[in-house]
Specification:
This protein has 112 residues and is mostly helical. It has helices at 2-23, 30-43, 53-61, 63-75, 78-83, 85-111. The protein contains 6 helices and no strands. Helix 1 crosses helix 3. The longest helix has 27 residues, at 85-111. The radius of gyration is 19 Å and the shape is extended. The termini are far apart.
């Protein structure tokens, strides 16, 4: 019964996110809106963490299985990915370095 409640709260946030995304005049991922809604509800304590904890743990435990279809779908685009591999690696490395520099700078400012 507890898992049903957990999934109902999470699913309700997702469905509200889908409704909001449909009303927006621009494209925005409904799942992100649903996550922001869930975060807001948790932050304001309108939804208690205990109400979604068990369901969230179950989803996290099986998350690797959810990525298998995506990985299999990417195999059909192997030629496109191999052509852009240099750019993908450059973008990932540049992003990583920028994030490390930014976090390091923020930490220095917070400590001093």
């Amino acid at each position: 019964m507890k898992l049903i409640r957990d999934f109902a709260v999470i699913l309700t946030c997702l469905l509200v996110g889908k409704a909001v995304a449909a009303l927006l005049p621009f494209a925005f991922p409904a799942s992100i809106i649903g996550l922001l809604l869930l975060f807001t509800l948790l932050s304001t304590q309108l939804v208690r963490l205990e109400w979604i904890f068990a369901g969230g743990q179950l989803i996290l435990r099986h998350m690797a299985l959810l990525f298998i279809p995506v990985a299999a779908g990417l195999l059909s685009y192997a030629d496109v990915l191999s052509r852009g591999l240099g750019f993908i690696l450059l973008a990932a490395t540049t992003g990583l370095v920028l994030i490390l520099l930014l976090v390091g700078r923020l930490y220095q400012r917070l400590v001093s």
